[in-house]
């Protein structure tokens, strides 16, 4: 019997009822069952997942290989067991929460064979407002450079890998990592690959955000994430020599994984954990953060990193508290230099260097706004709009270089008007048409981060929903005093959608567009009952 073209590896741990849809999407692949193998590894599930796997194996015995093992604590072990059992020319990893488009495997294998590619990315989209970076999927490409593309922002393992490449270089998952073990695996595969290709003309992979948010990544804690980041940065440093290529990989790590450790939720942790995070991030900054990387990060992130390296825990917490509870600090202008006047700046008792607060070379600093008011209303044309009131402590946005100032929800621009100027600062009115937000959504839902940028609107500079970066002149709007905003219900075709301004865990303003589904309604009801 000839080897299958592709082996699909599915690590499984308590993923019912999502698992059924995942497995259905595999057996319905247009590539045909004789050309594929499914290796499902049950990592000690305690729900009905193991039985569901056996049900499919009984129905499709020539396709399914099911492995049961005691719980290993993370997906790395199951992925390695599945990889060892894979017999296909290519391997594709699928999360048991997720599912594939019907033509996914056929298109991926056809492209890999035609282009002699070692790694092929197919477009990934989020379900239930799960955010997936889309910049790597702007267009299909036969050849993508790991170091000169958006690929470092998309190093999840949801790709087609040539099995011979993985075996030749002994590329396997690091089982000591409970979370994010796919990053070093995927990075090394891409680093060793002769050719990496992208297919952007089809929705290959649907990445699902569970309503219950119970998977291991959602529930991971700061110290575990810190240990994982430390291990992954050390892996990058060992794999890639110092210089621009290493920086291209590390900038994404500092912009995302490391930055998430010093977001606003650090305020809610116990003192010992806060201290451990401060000290750990400080070590990473001192060891790996080059000037070239720092220049590509946003002002908030740069300042917080500087305080992990040059300041105390209390210095860091004071800055985070300012952003989370008060708002944008004043700007001190001294000649050609500008400083963010956060707590601790030029405090003799603190002795912090001015360089920690220097925002002279930060292009997005004049665009920083606090969102102070929200509401749905009718505009002059009778169209429903979301009106946001923004505040800047800068009394003269023009003099600060923020003229024009534009606001957008990622690729959707808003009507932005400065409506008041004075010694106390500037007030900006921002309006998003509900129709634009709805038209820009996808059937599975989407959240967009709201950001302001200096100069005319440029979608390439608008912030993505998981980005902390601000280089290029864009800054996320913060909403330190946003409570529960009232959603707007709108119909699109046969479906109802909720349009809601909301706030992420770091206090940034988001606009959520999600379909009204039975599962979502049930999840909301459960959340309300838990609050009582």
* Biggest sheet record: 7 strands, mixed
Distance between the termini: 60 Å
- Strand ordering within the main sheet: 3-2-1-4-8-6-9
Number of helical stretches of at least 4 residues: 15
Which segments are poorly predicted (pLDDT under 50) over 5 or more consecutive residues? 213-219
Silhouette = globular
Radius of gyration, rounded? 24 Å
Structural class: alpha+beta
Kindly state the number of beta strands: 23
Strand proportion, as a percent range, falls in: 15-25%
Averaged pLDDT: 91
What portion of residues is helical? 25-40%
Features of the shown structure:
532 residues; seven-stranded mixed β-sheet; 15 helices; 30% helix
Write a structural description:
- Helix 10 (271-288) crosses helix 12 and helix 12 runs antiparallel to helix 13.
- Helices cover 30% and strands 24% of the residues.
- The chain has helices at 18-27, 49-59, 76-85, 104-115, 163-168, 182-192, 216-219, 222-239, 244-255, 271-288, 291-294, 299-310, 313-326, 434-439, 518-531; strands spanning 6-12, 36-43, 64-69, 90-93, 99-100, 119-122, 124-127, 159-162, 196-199, 205-208, 331-334, 337-340, 370-378, 384-392, 405-409, 412-413, 415-422, 425-433, 446-454, 474-476, 488-492, 495-503, 509-515.
- The strands form five sheets. The protein has a seven-stranded mixed beta sheet with strand order 3-2-1-4-8-6-9, with helices on both faces. Strands 15, 16, 19, 20, 21, 22 and 23 form a seven-stranded antiparallel beta sheet that branches. A four-stranded antiparallel beta sheet has the order 13-14-18-17.
- The protein is of the alpha+beta class.
């Amino acid at each position: 019997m000839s080897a299958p073209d592709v082996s699909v590896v599915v690590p499984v741990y308590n993923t019912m009822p999502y698992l059924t849809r995942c497995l259905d999407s595999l057996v319905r692949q247009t590539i045909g069952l004789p050309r594929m193998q499914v290796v499902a590894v049950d990592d000690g599930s305690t729900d009905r997942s193991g039985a569901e796997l056996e049900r499919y194996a009984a129905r499709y015995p020539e396709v399914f290989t099911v492995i049961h093992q005691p719980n290993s604590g993370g997906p790395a072990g199951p992925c390695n067991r599945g990889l060892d059992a894979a017999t296909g020319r290519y391997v594709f990893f699928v999360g048991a929460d997720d599912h594939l488009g019907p033509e996914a495997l056929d298109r991926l294998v056809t492209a890999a064979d035609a282009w002699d590619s070692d790694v092929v990315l197919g477009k990934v989209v989020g379900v239930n407002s799960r955010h997936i970076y889309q910049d790597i999927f702007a267009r299909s490409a036969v050849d993508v450079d790991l170091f000169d593309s958006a690929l470092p922002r998309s190093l999840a393992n949801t790709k087609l890998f040539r099995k011979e490449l993985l075996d030749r270089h002994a590329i396997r998952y690091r089982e000591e990592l409970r979370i994010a073990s796919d990053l070093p695996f995927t990075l090394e595969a891409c680093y060793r690959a002769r050719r990496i290709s992208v297919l952007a003309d089809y929705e290959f992979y649907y990445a699902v955000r569970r309503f219950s948010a119970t998977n291991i990544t959602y529930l991971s804690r700061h110290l575990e994430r810190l240990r994982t980041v430390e291990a992954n940065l050390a892996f990058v440093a060992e794999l890639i020599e110092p210089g621009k290529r290493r920086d291209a990989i590390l900038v994404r790590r500092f912009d995302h994984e490391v930055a998430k450790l010093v977001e606003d939720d650090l305020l809610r942790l116990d003192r010992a954990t806060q201290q451990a995070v401060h000290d750990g991030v400080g070590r990473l900054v001192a060891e790996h953060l080059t000037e070239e990387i720092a220049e590509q990060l946003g002002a908030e992130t740069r300042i917080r990193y500087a305080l992990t390296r040059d300041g105390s825990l209390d210095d860091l917490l004071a800055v985070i508290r300012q952003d989370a509870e008060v708002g944008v600090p004043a700007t001190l202008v001294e000649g050609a230099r500008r400083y963010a006047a956060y707590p601790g700046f030029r405090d003799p008792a603190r002795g912090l260097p001015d360089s920690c607060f220097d925002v002279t070379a930060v292009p997005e600093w004049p665009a920083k706004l606090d969102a102070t008011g929200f509401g749905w209303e009718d505009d002059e044309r009778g169209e429903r709009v979301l009106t946001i009131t923004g505040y800047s402590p800068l009394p003269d946005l023009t003099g600060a270089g923020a003229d024009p100032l534009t606001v957008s929800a990622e690729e959707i621009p808003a009507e932005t008007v400065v409506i008041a100027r004075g010694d106390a600062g500037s007030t900006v009115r921002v309006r998003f048409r509900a129709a634009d937000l709805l038209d820009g959504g996808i059937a599975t839902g989407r959240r967009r981060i709201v950001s302001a940028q200096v100069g005319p609107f440029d979608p390439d500079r608008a912030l993505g929903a998981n980005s902390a970066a601000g280089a290029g002149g864009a800054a996320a709007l913060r909403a330190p005093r946003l409570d529960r905003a009232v959603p707007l219900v709108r119909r699109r075709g046969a479906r109802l959608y909720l349009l809601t301004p909301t706030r992420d865990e770091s206090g940034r303003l988001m606009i959520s567009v999600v379909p009204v589904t039975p599962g979502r309604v049930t999840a909301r009801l459960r959340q309300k009952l838990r609050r009582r």
